[in-house]
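Amino Acid Chain and Its Fold in Token Form
===========================================
Purpose: to set a sequence beside its fold so the mapping can be learned.
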Amino acid sequence: MGSVSIWLEATRSKTLPAAVAPVLLGSALAQAHAGFHLLPAAICLIFALLIQIGTNFANDYLDAARGTDTEARLGPRRAVASGLIRPAVMRGAAIAILALAFSLGLGLIYFGGWWLVLVGLASVVCAWIYTGGPYPLAYNGLGDVFVVLFFGVIAVACTYYVQTGVVLLEVVFLGIACGLVVNNILVVNNYRDIDEDRQAAKKTLVVLLGRSWALGQYAVSLIIPGAVLVWLVVSGYSPLVLLGVLPLVFGFRQLPLLMKAKQPKDFLTCLKGTALVVVGFSLFTSLGLVLA
């Protein structure tokens, strides 16, 4: 496998919808309120993608350093743990990508004000301490909180804000909905890795509360977004917004697959299905907002 292919694999492309979804939803809501602006939306999208990739690179490096990732893992191979990329190189790549994200994000100051520097700094710092530092979020049951906040509430709200100059209640609720749907990708990964994580003292919510909790969390993270869409319609938005419910229904089909999953290919099927739910929810909900 060539070096380019190795780096592309290290980006964990199946997780990238997590970065696109909140920007799409925030921009669609801005369009629904006649406030869409292409340039800040594009900057938000590139920033989100870089943060996601930087987080993945940092996770690859830091999990290998902690001994969490091994060649015996059920999930996709990791570049550093597999010896495909040297630790120092991956560390440098993670820092470079996160620095690039922060630098690009400075352009949003023009549209939203200097306080956005704090959002950019928080995004970069949390991307690193997700699995790094003295109290890594993912190792202490806070990974889910990080995802819901930064790939849900904060991402949707900031995308909307830099285009409209305000943040409404429905923006926050839609951000929570997005974050929960996106977080199901993490739920599947943690469900798969529960035995390895226990051995590595990685206290994910699944490790702390068990597989039954994870299945319930997955289901609730589909129900709440559906309730948010219903609330939007009751609040006066077009019933077309309910198009976003369709992918959520598909999401429930992943639960029995996850319960029965034993082999790597089984978990990969669930992961792909969950990523499709993220894509479908953000796309269909956005279409409903824009076409109304």
